[in-house]
Amino acid sequence: MGKLIELKEKLANERPNKWENIPDIDLYMDQVLNYMKRQHIGLGSEEALTSSMVNNYMKKDLLPRAKGKKYSRIHIAYLTSICLLKQILPVTETGFFLKRQSEKQTIEKFYEKYCGLLDESLNRLSVEIVEDMDEDAVLDLILKLAVSSYTEKLVCSRLLRSISPADFPSA
């Protein structure tokens, strides 16, 4: 089960860059897309971020507008979190959440919190994968994670709707 060890190592070691390590120079779209491939554990070729996606995020106000076709550290931080959040929440809910977050704290603080929570979660999960897991143990872990993902997604969405129901976007 070499793939288990490979997954365990990815979970234990691959992380988005910390705020201070994100380039502080503006990047063009193709540079952003290439950078994002290294920024997120889930952004392999099967989940590639495209320029159309980035443009749609700007149109839907999930992401600030680019400044003359150039993207800053702020854009990278938003895109990194959007790539994860959109796996859990619909785009409209993701936008609502990010808007509310930006009203409460800077993107730098939000991104630092995001990276810390991601780090904790990935470390916890990497410990659950052991070298000598048999197929039954792997299947049990899959069930545990699937049920946990479902319940956490459900609660996440309901909590988000409870913040300000009148302001919440309709689907």
Q: How would you describe this protein?
A:
- The chain has 171 residues and is mostly helical.
- The protein has 7 helices and no strands.
- It has helices at 2-13, 29-39, 51-59, 73-85, 91-104, 107-128, 135-163.
- α1 (2-13) packs antiparallel against α6 (107-128) and α4 (73-85) crosses α6.
- The longest helix has 29 residues, at 135-163.
- The chain is globular.
- The N and C termini lie far apart (42 Å).
Q: By helix and strand content, what is the structural category? A: mainly alpha
Q: Give the termini distance in whole angstroms.
A: 42 Å
Report the radius of gyration as a whole number of Å: 17 Å
Residue fraction in strands: under 5%
Which term fits the overall shape? globular
- How many strands in all? 0
Percent of residues in helices: 55-70%
Determine the mean pLDDT.
90
Order of helices and strands: HHHHHHH
- What are the segments in which pLDDT stays under 50 over at least 5 consecutive residues? none
How would you characterize the largest beta sheet? none
Oligomer class? single chain
Count of helices?
7
Give me the secondary-structure topology.
Elements: H1 2-13, H2 29-39, H3 51-59, H4 73-85, H5 91-104, H6 107-128, H7 135-163
Descriptive terms for the model:
171 residues; mainly alpha; 7 helices; globular
Briefly characterize the structure.
By secondary structure, the chain is mainly α. Helix content is 64%, strand content 0%.
